[in-house]
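Exercise 3.2. Students should predict the tertiary structure of the chain below and write it as structure tokens, then compare their answer with the key that follows.

Predict this chain's 3D structure.
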Amino acid sequence: MLNVIEKVKQITGEDRLQDYLHYHYKMQLKDVKPVSGVLKLETDKGFYALKRVLGKDKNRLDLLYEYKKFQKSKNRNIKNILFPKATRNKKPYFDGYKYSYALFPWIDSKPITLNKLDDFGKVAESLAIFHNDSKDFEPSFGYQKLDNRGKWKKKWAKELNNCQIASLAAKMTPVPTKVDEFWTDISSYIIAIMENLLEYYQKNDCELICKESSKYSKIAHCNLNKNNILVQDLTKKVFFADLNKIMLDVRSCDIADWIFYSYGKTGKKEVIKAILKAYQNISKLDENEYLLIYARLFYPCRLIEVINAVYNEGSKDISMVSKTISKLIKIENNKLIILKDFLNVLEDDFNISIPYIDWIK
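Answer key:
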């Protein structure tokens, strides 16, 4: 049977993880076990989860740790987020020989079960608490790249411009690659979506609404799915894990993403009503915020992410990318149904009417 050092080396490739843990946290490692993408550590100070940290995620962990310190300074005990444990050098992660790592408290829990509309609403209530807790947080200087508050227009305009430049370059190149040919086929569709989105956003002065709504929340999770939403075995309370995509952004971002995810799981417009009603059991939404949620629902974020990666990195497996893009385009087409149902729910259940995107109508 392998001893703990041999087990760690076999799993992580790290020879001295036990030494790192002792140096940074003054703890002795007793046993390790891979569980759902993390290492469950048994130590002389209890159980912890060890998670690998990518270079691009370090700034987000720094932000999360600063948020933890802010809440501690206010004598608040935030229980719906897993915060990283600080090292002896007051950092939220440490560097191993091969990778960097963050240490989180281990909580016996399971991914949330989403069988009933109430389950989606329960998450929405927890999300409202998550947002409300952050409304008076203002981070220190250094997180500009993570700050989207009042900057949706700038971000989307840049992405549209990149799409237009890439489309022109693909058409003009004398010897087009497979990526060029693929991009030429789909670029007009993506450009049309982004142009209509920006037209709607500007016509309805959404950038001002975005800036003003930042008073209600400062932190957005930006990666809501059932694997990142856990229910504690003992208390049955919902909490959020894997905050490696957090942003400084308004709450409409997360609300729209949760509606989109939940609708995809159920295909029912009733889930939209359940989410909006449950969220507002905790925190009332301004009527103008529905425009932001609507715009965010229309925004093809996953398609843009993949396209940027493909064109900028020059993916070799264009057939695999083609299948992914085709699937995402199908999702974007299905969004038209979600957006219409969203407007119907607002009118029928909340007596609210907002402008629609002409392209959809």
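Discussion points: Strands lie at 29-35, 38-43, 46-53, 94-95, 100-105, 109-111, 219-220, 229-232, 238-240, 247-248. The CA atoms of residues 82 and 177 lie 45 Å apart.
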